[in-house]
Model the fold of this input.
Amino acid sequence: MTDVQTLTILLGQNERRRDAAIAEHQRAQGVADAARSQAEQLLAYRRDYELRWSAQFCREGRMELVHCYQSFMERLTLAVEQQSRIADHTAQQVELALGALRDTELRCASVRKLIDRRLAEQRLDAERRDQKQTDEAATRAAWNRLASTRPAPLM
Done:
């Protein structure tokens, strides 16, 4: 197996890893988008709930309603905070997946560049061999012409 064949196999392995990293990044991005969307929906719901109950309290504000409102708002605030933490965590996971993807892309590019360099070296070696053979053939032809134009030695 030649050096270039070995590098080509290595490139194939690195490309499969890169493809897996792309899939993981896309999956993480989808999870992060969903978490961020849910956090935004919870915030919007909390704002709507506050506005609705503010109007309700202007009309009547019985204590049991106030307690229910406060209790629900506490739970809703906890849910919003938890979802915000989840969204932050998933955003970090996206960054980690992106870093892994960049690493695999860099490895693929490095191996590709090494393959190109080795192929260029092989082409250059082949050109040098061809040039050497051409030069040797030209030298032999010149010697043969020179030998045929000389008179034969007298004995």
Notes: The chain is about 95% helix and 0% strand.
